[in-house]
Amino acid sequence: MKSDHLKFGTKAIHGGLEPDSATGAIMTPIYQTSTYVQDGVGNHKGYEYSRTLNPTRHALEKNLAAIENGKYGACFGSGLAAMDCLIKTLNPGDEVISTNDLYGGSYRLFKTIFEKYGIKFHFVPMQDMTQIEANINSNTKLIWVETPTNPMMNIIDIQAVAKIAKANGILLAVDNTFATPYLQNPLDLGADVVMHSVTKYLGGHSDVVMGALVCNDDKLAQEIYRIQNSSGAVCGPQDSFLVLRGIKTLHLRVQRHCENGEKVAQFLANHPKIDKVYWPGFETHPNHDVARKQMRGFGGMISFTLKGNKLEDALDVVKKVEIFALAESLGGVESLIGHPATMTHASIPKEEREKSGVVDSLIRLSVGVEDVDDLIRDLEQALR
């Protein structure tokens, strides 16, 4: 279905999708097959082998492109596999400027996998555009932005970075996992590529691991599909089906995540044992004005620190919660709590971690869609 003129909720349900041509099934079937019978050599129905293309995955890729206002979508076995594909478009000697406060797995991929192949990474605080410009040289080929950042919830001005990237002929990629396409569309703001850990809000039910890239450029898309097929880090049809189903309620879920997130953030900001609360919806949040400009809501991700900054206090809180589940990941319907220093960001050296604010008492919440009064009561008893 053509989705250019549709509003988001309609695109989430119908964008890029058609009823099954064979049966009229309204839901995209799970094409659980590895290969496809051809009528003759090279005479097939568009599908030859499921690593290259599978109808269920293809439907999801079109749906993702529609909700990100892009032309091309590509799905992978995880968010890191999607990133891996994009970095493989670079060559030894190329340089990347990355957000300094970013998901630990992204940092690990850059530093421990791709640096040894001769790609150089600079990690800079991108709230200050001069820090980006200071690291640009003739070898700079990619700027990697994460906004809001994980876990410090920093906001980076995508339009401002896009202006710098375009002026210097550099590719701009934005990790849009925390915001989701419901709250933010980086391609509309000048980015060249959007990356998602589909595992999180897009899937939304903590039952899938997947990643995706979305772009508009024909040549870049062709290269992404070439690497996707050649490296083979693709997702299966069952997972593709689950994500297609998840996206149909994305707008409803994220709206509730935002509503609950705001109430939880206000509760934490007024609690005597809390030192700082990191949530871009506060007017006191650095770059709050940028968040208001480029986002349609502030999301359900919140980080906070405890007074005294003691590791044992943070570990005590995450152990005592009853509704919030102590677990890696985020973006599911259920609320999760995590301790970045020992969990999601443990792969970043302590000195580097603390420079960006990931201190021992920092706790990260993924606020779910439960009744918010129950969530606040749970945090209240854990902090008591």
Radius of gyration: 21 Å
Strand content: 5-15%
Fraction of helical residues: 25-40%
Query: Ranges with pLDDT <50 over ≥5 residues?
Result: none
Just give the CATH class of the largest domain: Alpha Beta
Kindly, what is the distance between the CA atoms of the first and last residues, rounded to a whole number of angstroms? 53 Å
Alpha plus pi helix count:
14
Overall geometric form: globular
* CATH homologous superfamily identity of the largest domain: Type I PLP-dependent aspartate aminotransferase-like (Major domain)
Per DSSP E runs of 2 or more residues, the count of β-strands stands at: 12
Structural class: alpha/beta
Query: What is the H/E string?
Result: HHEHEHEHEHEHEEHHHEHEHEEHEH
Strand order of the largest sheet: 1-7-6-5-4-2-3
What is the CATH architecture descriptor of the largest domain?
3-Layer(aba) Sandwich
What's the number of domains?
Answer: 2
Biggest sheet features: 7 strands, mixed
Say what the CATH topology of the largest domain is: Aspartate Aminotransferase, domain 2
Summed over residues and divided by their number, the pLDDT gives a mean of 96
